[in-house]
Design brief:
Blueprint (H helix, E strand, L loop, with lengths): L7 H5 L3 H16 L2 H8 E4 L2 E5 L4 E5 L5 E7 L3 H12 L5 E7 L11 E5 L6 H15 L5 E7 L3 H4 L5 E2 L2 E2 L2 H13 L4 H9 L8 H6 L3 E7 L22 H10 L8 H11 L17 E7 L1 H14 L3 E9 L3 H18 L7 E7 L13 H15 L7 E7 L11 E4 L1 H5 L3 H9 L3 H8 L2 E2 L10 E7 L1
Helix pairs in contact: 2-12, 3-4, 8-10, 10-11, 13-14, 14-16
């Protein structure tokens, strides 16, 4: 799952701190391997399936149903599917799961995988949504539907909303998604907008599945693990409104740039002319059981254990890291300098861990992702005061293996990288949001390949 670094010449340039940071990230990702988590969470005793989730245990007798179908979407969809097939075997009768293109892992035997676009949806995303709904519509009271949900599902299952006299297009959704991403809108708020432009998200999927029993196995890529936000709340009621969705766009300065049909739909929803998303108490959720089986906190626990085994004094700062990536990078650099100079808040050798999901407001036309931008901001601080960062290694990486629209999971920031870099080039790349090309040029990228899991990001700060 984790293929490591390339090429060999770049590997040889890594410091021991970098190698340790990579080992810590590797441990975090391996802990949230979806196949492993499903094997730990699901136990089948003859026909009784018991699911041990983060906060509850749920049991269901498969013999009470004449069909068991599998539906879902997300970057971890392929490995979640394989894990479920290993547990349930011939109990599964049919299934469709949407996955990110290239994130198929080993081929599924019983459930059809449909590859689609992320983070901006494509035609395959619409096809995947229609295929999932087609099978969902066939469900009846004797059907058990197991939904496999992970981050990325919002884009991978895209069905432009349609009401009498109003019909969105794929292009409408694509443009709106790009505007929200470019504005640095937090993922929870992006999903609030997307839910109100979708015919499948925000609990609408549950209305189609009803009256079947729906058990959702959920892998969280959302800070705080809000079930209504993960994959835009496929299996959860929605507390948001059209008014909130429009206000998000207005606050972030993109309301006037929205496609005409999108703006008209949001305004029509505010006036009550089209139906809202299903809210708590809606009959659609009477037989819906959402179960959280994987989180960023689990990954951080494994990272902490690995760091301690490597001999570091370790502190997990937070699993809820948010904000502008470059600003977070500067804050973490300040903490690193304090540890290096005064051993506060940790004694050396020190390992500070964090997890979450930051954002990037696009100011330039470069290429990169939030982890690479955070590392570049950190590197800028090292370049400004190299003597303050002796023994410091910083790595920020996405657990899914893809940081933004790039083939890198993230990037390093170290004194040796700063020495090989031109300080003005660092600042220019940061101004142009061009972290990918900068780090590619100096050998600072972490490339893991698709990991087929997704629980936000991990930051590892080491001070030797």
């Amino acid at each position: 799952m984790f293929v490591g670094l390339r090429p060999e010449g770049e590997r040889k340039m890594r410091t021991s701190g970098c190698r340790n940071a990579e080992s810590i990230v590797r441990a975090a990702i391996e802990r949230v391997d979806p196949m492993k988590m499903i094997a730990e969470s699901l136990v089948l005793d003859e026909s009784v399936l018991q699911i041990r989730a983060a906060a509850q245990t749920y049991s269901v007798d498969l013999a009470d149903f004449h069909r068991v179908i599998v539906l879902g979407a997300g970057k971890a969809g392929a490995t979640m599917t394989l894990g479920l097939e290993e547990v349930l075997g011939d109990w599964i009768t049919d299934g469709v799961v949407a996955v990110k293109a290239g994130h198929t892992g080993n081929a599924s035997t019983k459930v059809r995988l449909v590859e689609a676009g992320h983070p901006v949806p494509d035609r395959n995303s619409v096809h995947a949504a229609r295929e999932v709904l087609r099978l969902a519509e066939s469900a009846d009271e004797g059907t058990l539907c197991i939904a496999l949900i992970s981050g990325g599902g919002s884009s991978l299952l895209t069905l432009p909303a349609s009401f009498e006299g109003m019909q969105l297009t794929l292009e409408d959704i694509q443009v709106t998604t790009q505007l929200l991403l470019g504005a640095g809108t937090p993922i929870g708020e992006i999903n609030c907008v997307r839910k109100h432009l979708s015919g499948i998200s925000g609990g609408r999927f549950c209305r189609v599945v009803a009256p079947a029993t729906l058990v959702a196995l959920i892998l969280s890529d959302v800070v705080g693990d809000d079930l209504a936000s993960i994959a835009s709340g496929l299996a959860s009621p929605d507390n948001g409104t059209y008014q909130e969705a429009y206000q998000i766009c207005a606050r972030d300065g993109i309301a006037d740039q929205l496609p005409k049909r999108v703006r008209e739909m949001l305004l029509a929803g505010m006036r009550g002319e089209i139906p809202e998303t299903p809210k708590p108490g809606d009959p659609a959720f009477e037989r819906v059981h959402p179960l959280l089986i994987g989180t960023n906190s689990l990954a951080l626990d494994a990272a902490r254990q690995c760091a301690e085994e490597l001999g570091y004094n370790t502190l997990v700062l937070t699993s809820r890291l948010t904000g502008e990536a470059r600003e977070v990078g500067r804050v973490l650099a300040g903490i690193a300098a304090d540890i290096a100079a005064r051993e506060v808040p940790l004694r050396k050798p020190a390992c500070l861990l964090a997890g979450g999901e930051t954002t990037v407001t696009l100011r330039g036309s470069g290429k990169g992702g939030r982890n690479q931008e955070m590392a570049l901001s950190f590197l800028e601080q090292i370049a400004a005061q190299p003597e303050a960062f002796r023994g410091v290694s910083f790595l920020s990486a996405g657990t899914d293996g893809n940081d933004g629209p790039t083939d890198a999971a993230g990037a390093w920031a170290t004194p040796s990288l700063a020495e090989r870099s031109n300080r003005s080039a660092i600042s220019e790349a940061l101004a142009d949001n061009d972290s990918y090309h900068f780090f590619d040029g100096v050998g600072g990228l972490l490339k893991t390949g698709p990991t087929n899991t997704n629980v936000c990001d991990i930051q590892v700060l080491l001070v030797e």
